Amino acid sequence: MFSFLRSSDPPRTKISHLSTFTMENDRSRVTFNNDPSILNPKTSIGFTLPPAEPGPNPRDNSVMIPAWHFHPSQQEYFLITAGTCLFDLNGERIPVKAGDEIVVPMGEYHRFTNASTTEEITLEAWYDPADLDREERVFRNLFGYLADQATGDGGMSENMSILQLALFGWESGSCLCEPSLAKLLPKWIGHPLFMGLTWVLGVFLGKWMMGYKGSYVEYYHPGSK
Description:
alpha+beta
């Protein structure tokens, strides 16, 4: 289930400042927007994804491409600003071209990637209900961490921890899921299962056992707002 929206839905406030992380030798970028000239003032985060790796089907080749996940308490909105984005949503693969907006309903399993093997894509995202402080804190931590783990050749360090990523996911209100299992299970089973898995990986093992944090001062400085 998905739907397309127009620019009247829903009004948004802007986050506190503008910055960009560049990753994978500048192949991918994430930007926190507060510029009134941006195409859609509702958006809080902008993404740039590189072309997919050529092959019989476009293949993912960027750490910016999210893992399969769902949001148990928020809808997620996207505006495609350049290129064509492929949204995997509950077993469907939906191409969304530049100029279109799409809403991912609360609780729907999803991810997105680039439809093209030659052109990058850009898209902007926001949530409803919004939690701007949490969104900025989590995404600054997540992408700061990923940037630090990048090896400089398009890969990621072997020290990158799934437990840390699960903790960031839990802090953001996102739950990781295994797509083949999600297709088999009804949501009344799948949702609590994947929520529990994300909590065990991120909070129990990552935070309590390994000492990982949900926020690091080198990535996020709330006092600077």
